[in-house]
Amino acid sequence: MQERIIHSDACLAEGAEWLAIQEPRFAHALALTGDLPLRLRKDGYEALLSAIVSQQVSVAAADAIWKRLKAAKLTGPRKVARASEEDLRACGLSRQKITYAKELAGAGIRFADLRAAPSGEVINTLVGVKGIGVWTAEIYAMFSLGRADVFAPGDLALQESARILFDLPNRPREKELRQMADDWSPWRSVAARLLWAYYRIAKDREGIR
């Protein structure tokens, strides 16, 4: 069965309506958030580098680092591969993330081939590169490939948003949230967008770039 791809706001609206019917708490969240952001991005090296930049830092910090990388024209694989550690560190990348950025630049991934690959294969391919974890691969599948039924349960903002919305005693761990998200298939990517939007309202800050 071919996977559903999110192409437009109409796709998001269809998924959001389905979720609201299935789960009253999602209907409540949607009434507060309004229309959900599409968040689609280009695929390829730059999109993954952006996700690496976002790992384990605040949205504001990631935005600042990314702006410096863009200004220095250090977001393409060949430029990153040739750049010195000093140049990349000056943009705000940690030593570890510099290693990850260079590993990805030399990984030889055929990004065009991933567009037609099953989401499980996409994620397995990406996590084979040092520095690309499951969260990064899932974010790429959701936003760069538009996969409608991918979720990122390791995301702390999603965990916290789910805790508040579902009135849970504790923030759900990755395994628990992944199990919860099974009920939101085939629109788990829309559920993620809704939880991020709800997080922004509940916590008054962004949970995802």
Defining traits:
single chain, Endonuclease Iii, domain 2, 209 residues, 2 domains, Endonuclease III, domain 1, mainly alpha
Describe the fold and architecture.
It is built from 13 helices and no strands. With 209 residues, the protein is mostly helical. The protein has 2 domains: 79 residues, Endonuclease Iii, domain 2; 99 residues, Endonuclease III, domain 1 (Orthogonal Bundle), CATH 1.10.340. The mean pLDDT is 95.
Task: Write a concise synopsis of the structure shown.
The chain has helices spanning 9-22, 24-33, 45-54, 59-71, 77-82, 85-90, 95-105, 111-114, 119-127, 134-143, 156-165, 174-181, 188-203. It starts with 8 loop residues before the first helix and ends in a 6-residue tail after the last helix. It contains 13 helices and no strands.
What would you call the shape?
globular
Estimate the helix proportion, in percent. 55-70%
Total number of distinct structural domains: 2
CATH architecture of the largest domain: Orthogonal Bundle
Order of helices and strands: HHHHHHHHHHHHH
Low-confidence stretches: none
Q: Gap between N and C termini, in Å? A: 31 Å
> How much strand content do the residues show?
under 5%
Number of helices: 13
Give a short account of the largest sheet.
none
CATH topology of the largest domain: Endonuclease III, domain 1
| Mean pLDDT rating | 95
By CATH, the superfamily of the largest domain comes out as Hypothetical protein, domain 2
CATH class of the largest domain, named: Mainly Alpha
The overall strand count is: 0
User: Which class do the helix and strand fractions yield?
Assistant: mainly alpha
Radius of gyration: 17 Å
